[in-house]
Amino acid sequence: MENELRVPNHIAIILDGNGRWAKRRGMPRGYGHIVGCDNLEKMCVVIKDMGVKYLTVYAFSTENWKRSRDEVEGLMKLFRQYLKRCIKKAHKNQMRVRIIGDPSAFPQDIQESIHILEDCSKDYDQMFFQIAMNYGSRDEILRGMTRMISDARDGRLPKDGFEDGKMTEALFESYLDTAGIPDPDLLIRTSGEQRLSNYLLWQLAYTEFYFTDVPWPDFHEEELRKAIEQYNRRDRRYGGVKEE
Ligand code: IPE
Ligand code: IPE
Ligand code: MG
To answer: Cα(57) to centroid of ligand 2, in Å?
Structure first.
């Protein structure tokens, strides 16, 4: 069965529902984040073993600072531990890990762990794993365009970045956090919500969407398989017509 499935080259996931999953068990929301984080570690390997080359997960949005101090502190603690474990996983799986988003808002030690993780994995190519942390698509675009304006002022924009006076998509994309990473083929959002919550607005222009009620801590291999099966039944057209 597995070999018959066309596996997406790039899967993006909005890891949602940790809090509700925990509350339903009479546990604090933070417990849901701990179990969700363990699940991410496991699923990352499952996804790699399926032959997916790129995985991009939404771990913390620019809007998530609005949560209670307790919850945000719990998440920072979890990131601290997770980033360290991720260094080992990166070596073991020959996986390049990049953080998308603005890390400057995180405590110094977390920023250091991010730097170490990105640097030590930069030559791996068995899988490309992107973690969106303090990420918001609008923030990404604004940060990118601010850099572009500064490059323009310094005369550093490439001439081939414009065609007939209009900026090319390639030039715009080169200023995004995802520069060099192909667009996602499949977006999965767990736990019932059907919105993007400021995730990859530019990059998801032609992505297939899959929504499931299953909360992230319960999203295991068989749920992923359902998503990929459904993806295989989609008829992707990119604005063209179906080839008979
Ligand atoms: C997703 O789970 C994880 C993060 C946003 C960090 P939530 O914390 O959003 O869980 P729900 O949606 O409240 O259940
Ligand atoms: C989006 O989930 C962000 C992450 C999964 C990290 P949220 O749970 O924060 O999104 P909203 O608030 O329901 O839109
Ligand atoms: Mg949520």
So the answer is: 12
Among 29, 70, 191, 197, say which to mutate for ligand 1: greatest number of ligand atoms within 8 Å of CB: 191
CB-proximal residues (5 Å) to ion ligand 3: 16
User: How far apart (Å, rounded) are the C-alpha atoms in residues 219 and 191?
Assistant: 9
Instruction: Please give the model's pTM, rounded to 2 decimal places.
Output: 0.97
Which residues, including other chains, have CB under 8 Å from residue 83's CB and lie 6 or more apart? 110, 113, 114, 117
CB atoms within 10 A of CB 80: 14
Cβ neighbours around 135 below 10 Å, total: 25
Pocket test for ligand 2, best of 21, 57, 197, 198 (most atoms within 8 A of CB): 197
Distances 16 to 2, 44, 171 between C-alpha atoms, Å: 26, 16, 32
pLDDT, tens digit, 9 for 90 and up, residues 4-51: 889 999 999 999 999 999 999 999 999 999 999 999 999 999 999 999
Give catalytic residue positions.
Answer: 16, 64
